[in-house]
Amino acid sequence: MPLVEVESVSKNYPRRAEAGLGFHQQDHFVVNAVSLTIERGETLGLIGESGSGKSTLARMILGLVEPTSGSIRVAATDIGGDRTKALRRQMQPVFQDPSAALNPRMRILDIVTEPLIIHRREAAIDTSHTALRAKATELMRSVGLDESALARYPHQFSGGQKQRINIARALALKPQFVVLDEPVSALDVSVGAQIVNLLRTLQKENGLTYLFISHSMPLVRYLSTRIAVMQHGRLIETGDAEELCAHPRESYTRQLLAATPELPAARL
């Protein structure tokens, strides 16, 4: 059974549209009848231009936005209402802007261990100072940072280091599923490549399942097992990563491939 099942999911918002001499309400579909699955241990790359509905779909899967219609299941549990809270530990996001995702007034120790404190009761987590520091040190090392980072504040780190900290926090609860929403688009190419390589390593070490969202076909191709292409809120093409890139069926997919040339192999 797939870890994630999305069936005929739509999200629309009402908007005013002109009608003769007046106005009427018309639904604007951000996501329109999307169905997809994500198997355990794989990376599904979700690609499309800005405004294609990628992030909205991801937020619905995470339970942050409620679908207008359709259903979403993660680990055989329907997303929605109180049931979503029980899944919080199993799915975590890493967002585009690493600076905006970190509280500037909190030390890194508190940022990384915050999920452990929030979920301490239902997960029976030891939140003593010694246990939290040991866990935070382990998480820092897993993303290529050392224990000295824990006493510092976000502004003392580079963009790439901040994203490593965000990844460490996402892994604190040992989730099954991680949504990576444009995780390297705010970083320069060389730093972004390092983060992508780190994500591959962490996936192998922890048996993670990824939804990797990007507008860069080379990055999606490099990290993904399969690729899904979105345009204007619709899923227009899916397939094995290498096969889809070598033989795209849709003209829009061919345009995406042409618009983002291959990255130098040394950078990945």
Keyphrases for this structure?
Rossmann fold, six-stranded mixed β-sheet, 10 strands, 34% helix, alpha/beta, 268 residues, four-stranded antiparallel β-sheet
CATH superfamily: P-loop containing nucleotide triphosphate hydrolases
Q: What integer value in Å does the Rg equal?
A: 20 Å
> Count the strands?
10
Distance between the termini: 32 Å
CATH architecture: 3-Layer(aba) Sandwich
SSE blueprint and pairings:
Elements: E1 4-19, E2 22-38, E3 43-47, H1 54-61, E4 69-74, E5 77-78, H2 82-87, E6 91-94, H3 108-118, H4 129-142, H5 159-171, E7 177-181, H6 189-206, E8 209-214, H7 217-223, E9 226-231, E10 234-240, H8 241-246, H9 251-259
Parallel strand pairs: 3-8, 3-9, 6-7, 7-8
Antiparallel strand pairs: 1-2, 1-4, 4-5, 9-10
Helix pairs in contact: 3-4, 3-5, 4-5
